[in-house]
Amino acid sequence: MRTTPGVTRASHTRRRTLSGAALAAAAVLALTSCGGGGDSAEPAAEVSTQPARAATVLDTPFTKPDLTLTDTSGEKYDLVKETKGHPTLLYFGYTNCPDICPLTMSNIAVAAKSLPESERKDLRVVFVTSDPERDTPKRLGSWLRGQSPDFIGLTGDFETIQAGARSVGIGIAPPKKNKDGEIESTHGAQVLAFSPKDDKAHVLYGEDTSVDAYTEDLPKLVKGKTP
């Protein structure tokens, strides 16, 4: 895994606020290459010279992407409709990622286990692939079951996925072969947390967010509170 030069990585001190517009301008350019060497397909962006925080609270929340994709059962899944009124964590990544994607999903899975059963069932954790050509519904289902049977996996047309990601400030680039022959998918590594109260993302988590940080914040997020 390589982080685009010039982009400040997230650490685990607590919250800051940032406008959705400012975040979109920065986060679309803050891409992480998982799966091999090579530079980002998009230019680097300087997000901050100060240590980033685990929870970035947005003063202008993001609207949930209007995406209808295919779930791990091969059925159509309308993201807005199916997650309406539910606390939702949204992440864009891919199953062949060797590091940050499985770590992020694992951290969320461990943290979710600390919730009461009713709140855990209400939570929607949605993983949208940035590598739909290889991430078939079957492949996504198998991979996500290794993380949590409750997680939702979505695949579909790359351009549709890319447009949906960019609408919430997450940049992804088409998968490509690097010099070693490995296929890498360059994607933003942020997790967006959507409130069940208005179905908007008020909080964003960076790639270094720990199990402890998610464990601390999830009880608030499921109730529609800002951590």
UniProtKB/TrEMBL annotation:
* Name listed for the protein in its UniProt record: SCO family protein
Q: Which family does it belong to?
A: Belongs to the SCO1/2 family.
* Entry keyword annotation includes Nucleotidyltransferase: no
The organism encoding this protein is Streptomyces lycii
Residue span of region Disordered: 172-191
Superkingdom of the source species: Bacteria
PANTHER family xrefs: ELECTRON TRANSPORT PROTIN SCO1/SENC FAMILY MEMBER, LINALOOL DEHYDRATASE_ISOMERASE DOMAIN-CONTAINING PROTEIN
Pfam families given in the database record: SCO1-SenC (PF02630)
Question: Which of UniProt's keywords are assigned here?
Answer: Copper, Signal
Task: Establish whether keyword Cell inner membrane is in the entry.
Answer: no
Q: Where does the record locate the signal sequence feature?
A: 1-35
Q: Which residues form the Thioredoxin domain?
A: 58-223
